[in-house]
Amino acid sequence: MRWGRSAPRAGRARRFALTALILGLAVMTALLTSAPVAASGRPQPLTPVVLFPAFHFTKLEVTVRNQTVAPGCPRSGTFEDYYENPHPSTAFSQVCRDELMTLRYDPDPRLPMPERFSNQRGVSVGIIDYGRTASAPFYGQLYQALGADGYSADKDIRVAGYDARLTPDLGGFLARTVALIERTYRANGNRPVELVGHSNGPLYAQYLLTHTSRSWRQKYIHGFTPIAGNFPGQGSVYSIMFTGLNIEDFSYPSTHANAVSSARMFLSSPASYMSSADPSVFGNREVVVKDAATGVKYTPVDYRRLFRDAHLRDALQIANYYIGFVKFRDPADFPDVDVTAERGSGIPTVVGAVLPTLAVGQVVTPKTVFYMRDGDVNQEDITNTAIEAWRAMPCYHFSLTDNPGVNHFALPSNAGVLARLIADLGRPRSRCR
Fold first, then answer.
1. Range of the domain at 161
2. Considering the entire predicted model, what is its pTM?
3. Distances (CA, A) of 97 to 210, 234, 249
4. CATH number at residue 116
């Protein structure tokens, strides 16, 4: 009888406890999905992200007014330039776009190198939607993954876009990017910012980190996530300066006129040389160009001979200044922030080509012979492992995660890469003096 009388009370107590447990779990789930939670149980503010896109992954608008450099092209108008542009200009052909984006170079040795470059007369180039995620649409899956973790586009995700023809000492990059990071910091409760870069983007982020003060980095920077950072350059760019490469789909030009216009554009761009394999890292470990007419093979160590043999005097001047331009291997050039790097591997990757001659405008055909190495389909392992030098960085955290079989362009949307990025954003930064 005693058990019979007490059973309803026990049932009510169990139901109350079960209800409380369900409500508690619901509250905890809401808190966990709405914002990160610190050890104290209070919601933890999100670490803002500033993204540095890859080579030509920033949307550019080219405005043309009364140009005369390309007589067969429209005198005036506009077109956009970026990788995977779904609507390339029909008014401006591929050859016209190349010719109008080819930089002018003044070889006068009295001029400092950064002052020798300018756009063609009548041509101006600007970044579309600077600072906003719309300026780099390729990274939609990265933005979505961050959004699922509570981030908001254009609030705590910003984009430090740049004109990919220019090196980070040109075009106002440094001042513009410092201002963007400081605005992002203030707009997010004075929260230090994570720099996330892909491919060539980490070169620009590294330049910024090594051209700002230690006190500035300690105030504004949470850490640095380079994804397949092209720090020492890559071998294939040398051959591209002879064959060209179309930006919309990274395909080789199929006509001689297009190969000439594209190759000339790359030869005029200081970023081409910054992105070419640095002989101080590569040595002679890979052949980047072979001249089939002479049988001569050129490695990164031979770049001066390559440009001399090709009678490219201006290219040699630019190469001597910009190859190896972004320093990173010596302790004085370490970023001095926490680094969580990612790379792909295990995929045959082009590093060089056999060309019929060293004339500018070589057309790649199905018979073209390429030199290959292991890599991520875009950059070879020599490039992607050079960052290991940062293991010697005192105090600050460093890691380099390999992603076998994940190609260069898939890394920023890879689930494992994104999960590690989100986890790193929630971790406190190292406190180093």
1. 49-425
2. 0.90
3. 34, 25, 14
4. 3.40.50.1820
